[in-house]
Automatic annotation (TrEMBL):
SUPFAM superfamilies: (Trans)glycosidases. It catalyses: a neolactoside IV(2)-alpha-Fuc-nLc4Cer(d18:1(4E)) + H2O = a neolactoside nLc4Cer(d18:1(4E)) + L-fucose; a neolactoside IV(2)-alpha-Fuc-nLc4Cer(d18:0) + H2O = a neolactoside nLc4Cer(d18:0) + L-fucose; an alpha-L-fucoside + H2O = L-fucose + an alcohol. GO terms for biological process: fucose metabolic process; glycoside catabolic process. GO terms for cellular component: lysosome. It is an enzyme of class 3 (hydrolase). It comes from Osmerus mordax. The keyword Hydrolase applies. Its EC number is 3.2.1.51. It holds the Pfam family Fucosidase_C. The lineage of its organism: Eukaryota, Metazoa, Chordata, Craniata, Vertebrata. The gene is FUCO2. This is Alpha-L-fucosidase. PANTHER family: ALPHA-L-FUCOSIDASE, PLASMA ALPHA-L-FUCOSIDASE. Gene3D superfamilies: Glycosidases, Golgi alpha-mannosidase II. Homotetramer. Residues 364-450 form the Alpha-L-fucosidase C-terminal domain.
Length: 453
């Protein structure tokens, strides 16, 4: 029996052959096997929360669009609603989080079927959701909630669910004077990363022990400026989560989709085909923003049918889906986000067998019948065909499977189905006539094929 990556590492460690001494080079860092839990999980929840949740207008880039780009909608919003001398920093005391109940959040996230969460500990605005030693008076302990929001979330998550903790952290900060000075020096100086970014990263890893670290916001500075490989060597060699932690690819200009534990490549990345390297599709339920928007119309929220389809297509192509919600400034998960999350959980209760712990099959989608995508479990000799549309005549043609006389087909959540081979190849499956209440789920359906290749 083949050893898993983690089991192999553990065994090699015992006999003294473990590759545990990672060097601060990309060649060495990239040689680390991806911990298996991440590939098996398939589905996580992203949480964008910060001072930008107070104006909750436009996007989480509110401050940058207002102050740097002076975009008219943002300028008008401030002019029409706040005094002339009101600054972005004045929003921080209004980031109150009085309704933030981490146990309630945990229940919602767990009900979605997600296996991990990724919380923004600090976005590009620089405000930290914990009492950072390196963010005096611009953190959630000193102003606003007066709470360690990261710590509260971590405690609730680990006490009430099997969800793994992931933390997002922005490398740069738009308007930090130290960052701006380094940028003006074309990154020939590195005062900002050595005095701010790197100390914060060490702090959140040692304090909260996340099993996923989601880096972002390189500000077009190279990884050498950020000393990314030096930090990652420590993370993989010495940190309290060195065995299980997973990292992404946003560690400096030029590293995205090239270095790191898994690739994100771009926001809302969906290649549509199998990649050789593990990847993730991070996307938003609100199609226009990562942060909460008070004025978002219903049409901007992606429907559950499309969210399920995105999950299936992502997993079929070997990726994980990280689906974002934006909480309100007072700590609520808006009902429309909660509904979408619980709907995902309803679908996964029936069809999770075709998502969790699966592998990409030799064909990602059916080349003849549109809207059919495949996953597989080689260890169980099972192929899963997931269809987005229920055929009107009840007949579903599948071009890709090679069938045998022993092939069996089961509709997950229902019963075995009849089928017949097609010429010159493929098969036709006869779906049952079911009433609405008899349907195993509402938005996509899974056929499990055994004894087929």
């Amino acid at each position: 029996m083949a050893l898993s990556n983690l089991a192999a590492v553990a065994l090699l460690s015992v006999v003294g052959l473990c590759r545990c001494d990672y060097k601060p080079t990309w060649e060495s860092i990239d040689s680390r096997p991806l911990p298996e839990w991440y590939d098996q999980a398939k589905f996580g929840i992203f949480i964008h929360w910060g001072v930008f949740s107070v104006p909750s207008f436009g996007s989480e880039w509110f401050w940058y669009y207002l102050q740097k780009q002076k975009r008219q909608p943002y300028v008008d919003f401030m002019k029409n609603n706040y005094p002339p001398d009101f600054q972005y920093q004045d929003f921080a005391p209004q980031f109150t989080a009085e309704f933030f109940d981490p146990k309630e959040w945990t229940d919602i996230f767990a009900s979605s079927g997600a296996k991990y969460i990724v919380l923004t500990t600090k976005h590009h605005e620089g405000f930290t959701l914990w009492g950072s030693k390196y963010s005096w008076n611009w953190n959630a302990m000193d102003v606003g909630p007066k709470r360690d929001l990261v710590g509260d979330m971590a405690v609730a998550l680990r006490a009430n669910s099997d969800l793994r903790l992931g933390l997002y952290h922005s490398l740069f900060e738009w308007f930090n004077p130290l960052w701006q000075q380094d940028a003006a020096n074309v990154f020939s100086t590195n005062v900002f990363p050595t005095s701010k970014t790197l100390p914060e990263l060490y702090e959140i890893v040692t304090k909260y022990k996340p099993e996923l670290l989601w880096s972002d916001g390189d500000g077009n500075a190279p990884d050498k400026y950020w000393n990314s490989t030096g930090f990652l060597a420590w993370l993989y060699n010495e940190s309290p989560v060195k065995e299980t932690v997973v990292t992404n690819d946003r560690w400096g200009y030029g590293s995205i989709c090239k270095h790191g534990g898994y690739y994100t490549c771009a926001d809302r990345y969906q290649p549509g085909h199998l990649l050789k390297h593990k990847w993730e599709n991070c996307m938003t339920i609100d199609s226009k923003s990562w942060g909460y928007r008070r004025n978002a119309p219903l049409q901007d929220y992606i429907k559950i049918e499309q969210l399920v389809q995105t999950l299936v297509e992502t997993v079929s192509c070997g990726g994980n889906l990280l689906m974002n919600v934006g909480p309100t400034h007072d700590g609520r998960i808006a009902p429309i986000f909660e509904e979408r999350l619980r709907q995902m959980g309803q679908w996964l209760k029936v069809n999770g067998e075709a998502i969790y712990n699966t592998s990409a099959w030799r064909a990602q989608k059916d080349n003849t019948t549109a809207g059919v995508w495949y996953t597989s479990k080689p260890q169980e000799k099972a192929i899963y065909a997931i269809l987005f549309e229920w055929p009107v005549d009840g007949k579903l043609f599948l071009q890709e499977p090679v069938v045998t006389g022993q092939t069996e087909v089961v509709l997950l959540g229902q019963k075995p189905l009849k089928w017949e081979p097609s010429k010159p190849s493929g098969m036709t499956v006869f779906l049952p006539q079911l009433s609405y209440s008899e349907m195993p789920c509402q938005w996509a359906w899974t056929l499990k094929l055994t004894a087929a290749t």
